[in-house]
Structures are given as structure tokens and as C-alpha cells.
């Protein structure tokens, strides 16, 4: 376990799972506002899927490089993908 993880475990309590469920319920409830979203149901699920897919890699890049709100993050992900292809 690295130093950062040990410090975080000492300083902060872990988040309880009910908190994630409490956030999930209003998110699903937003699907009932289909007219205001102007998206079909599969568009909302696709948008959530894309967001979930990119959250972890961009979070890792942000944590390791200390660059927050970097517009170059998608380009960095593409560069990493090319490294694994070779």
C-alpha cells in the first residue's frame, strides 16, 4: 500500500454504500424527464456508460500527473492506447 492510501485511510472514513444508492435514485429519476433531456433512453445510458468508461483512466492520469481539468486528457489516453498496441 502506498503512502497516499495509508494517509487517506487514516484521515477519512470509507463512504457507505447507501450514499451511492442515494445518488443513483435521482439519476434514474431523471429519465422520467425525457422531454427536457431531449434524448432517448438509450442515449442517457450511452452517455452514462461513456462517462463511467473514461472516469477511471482520466482519474489515474489526474492523480499521477497532478493536472486537473486538462483538455489534453483524451489525447493522453489515445497515446497510452497506442503504447499497448505496439
Topology of this protein?
Elements: H1 3-11, H2 17-29, H3 34-37, H4 41-65, H5 73-85
Number of helices: 5
**What letter string, H or E per element, gives the SSE order?**
HHHHH
Classify the helix fraction into a percent range. Answer: over 70%
- Biggest sheet character: none
Mean pLDDT: 77
End-to-end span in angstroms?
A: 30 Å
Low-confidence stretches: none
SS strand fraction: under 5%
Look at the helices and sheets and give the structural class: mainly alpha
Shape: flat
From the alpha carbons, calculate the radius of gyration and give it in angstroms: 17 Å
How would you sum up this structure, described in words?
0% of the residues are buried. Helix content is 74%, strand content 0%. The protein is flat and about 45 Å long. It has one domain. The two termini are 30 Å apart. By secondary structure, the chain is mostly helical. Pfam families: OPT (PF03169).
Amino acid at each position: 500500500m502506498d503512502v497516499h492510501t495509508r494517509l487517506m485511510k487514516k484521515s477519512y472514513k470509507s463512504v457507505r454504500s447507501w450514499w451511492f444508492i442515494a445518488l443513483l435514485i435521482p439519476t434514474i429519476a431523471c429519465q422520467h424527464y425525457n422531454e427536457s433531456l431531449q434524448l432517448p433512453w438509450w442515449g442517457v445510458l450511452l452517455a452514462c456508460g461513456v462517462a463511467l468508461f473514461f472516469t477511471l483512466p482520466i482519474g489515474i492520469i489526474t492523480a499521477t500527473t497532478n493536472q486537473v481539468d486538462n483538455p489534453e486528457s483524451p489525447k493522453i489516453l489515445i497515446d497510452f492506447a497506442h503504447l499497448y498496441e505496439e
